[in-house]
Automatic annotation (TrEMBL):
The active site is at residue 127. The gene is pfkA. This is ATP-dependent 6-phosphofructokinase. Its cofactor is Mg(2+). The keyword Nucleotide-binding applies. It comes from Oceanobacillus halophilus. Residues 3-275 form the Phosphofructokinase domain. ATP binds at residues 11, 72-73, 102-105. Homotetramer. Substrate binds at residues 125-127, 162, 169-171, 222, 243, 249-252. HAMAP family: Phosphofructokinase_I_B1. Signal peptide: none annotated. Allosterically activated by ADP and other diphosphonucleosides, and allosterically inhibited by phosphoenolpyruvate. ADP binds at residues 21-25, 154, 185-187, 211, 213-215.
Length: 319
């Protein structure tokens, strides 16, 4: 394989740039040309593709977002869209593609691989919701952003003696809320993967009030519901004043942490190795700090689970 392409797709995540850098530098190290695709699969279909060199990825390892930009494309989900994308790559002599993104992006990679065009997936999403890897690129940075927010809200929660609800991103996954809640000492962590009775949450708040607790912090994952509605319900049930902070898109930005940069560098480089080894339709990941790779079909058929031990511990520590 003498020419490969790389694109970012779906939602952006801090560390995607470090992954792009690793793909480009690793490929060039092996005398392979690299082409960067702008705007994900949409740009691929439109031929928005440029040759990259060592300099194209200079000074980006520390930047959030993605220099290749990302997009969502419904047209690419069609057979015609996928054939068009393959034609664009063939025109330039590109023989393999690294796709950095989430599970939706891997479905695209799966479709291209099935049509004979080898793709390797690199998990990049703040949600940490991809099976087959302990961590996804961007999760650690986002987690630290959420934690900083919890610490700040805690200052004002103590001063005003109120109950604060902090709503995190994560789509249908509770990892961000769980990790940030445990690290931030939250009283309650409400995530989609578990079912705690609403009355239990209220009872815990009331027990805290009875023993003179000045404030409470609840971390709520967006996949469970709306923070403001939860606030209203708590007020109705307990008469406790609540304030809600929806963290929103700040969770997707910022300088990637060391953890994310190292992960992105390792996964990006391994993706290139797999393409050069003639592999296709696989996703790279990390398990117990070792690099692994799995068939994309397997990844897409599995479910992501949260760490139950961590969830139980968070409850034990917030009695
Ligand atoms: P995030 O988790 O951050 O949302 P994602 O990769 O899951 O990232 P999606 O919007 O689901 O984001 O997918 C990104 C793109 O991948 C889509 O816009 C589409 O172009 C392509 N894609 C998604 N599903 C399919 C599919 N079934 N077949 C072909 N392509 C797909």
């Amino acid at each position: 394989m003498k020419k490969i392409g790389v694109l970012t797709s779906g939602g952006d995540a801090p560390g995607m740039n470090a992954a792009i850098r690793a793909v480009v530098r690793k490929a060039i190290y092996h005398d392979v040309e690299v082409y960067g695709v702008k705007y994900g699969y949409q740009g691929l279909m439109e031929g928005n593709i440029e040759k990259m060199d060592l300099g194209s990825v200079g000074d980006i390892i520390q930047r959030g977002g993605t220099i290749l930009a990302t997009a969502r494309s419904d047209e690419f989900k069609t057979d015609d869209g996928q054939h068009q994308a393959i034609e664009q790559m063939k025109k330039l002599g590109i023989e393999g593609l690294v796709v950095i993104g989430g599970d939706g992006s891997f479905r695209g990679a799966q479709k291209l691989s099935a049509k004979g065009f080898p793709c390797i997936g690199v998990p990049g999403t703040i949600d940490n919701d991809i099976p087959g890897t302990d961590f996804t690129i961007g999760f650690d940075t986002s987690l630290n952003t959420v934690l900083e927010a919890i610490d700040k809200v805690r200052d004002t929660a103590t001063s005003h003696e109120r109950t604060y609800i902090i709503e995190t991103m994560g789509r249908d996954a509770g990892d961000l809320a769980l990790w940030a809640g445990l690290a931030g000492g939250a009283e309650s962590i409400i995530i989609p993967e578990t079912t705690e009775e609403f009355s239990d949450i209220c009872n815990r708040l009331e027990r805290g009030r009875e023993r003179g607790k000045k404030h409470s912090i609840i971390v709520l994952a967006e996949g469970v519901g709306n923070g403001f509605e939860y606030g209203e319900r708590i007020k109705e049930e307990t008469n406790l004043e609540t304030r809600v902070t929806v963290l929103g898109y700040i969770q997707r930005g910022g300088t990637p942490t060391a953890q994310d940069r190292v992960l992105a560098s390792r996964l990006g480089a391994r993706a290139v190795e797999l393409l050069l080894d003639g592999k296709a339709n696989r996703m790279v990941g990390i398990k117990n700090n070792d690099l692994v790779d799995h068939e994309i079909d397997t990844i897409l058929s599995e479910k992501h689970f949260i760490n139950k031990e961590m969830y139980n511990l968070s409850k034990e520590l917030s009695i």
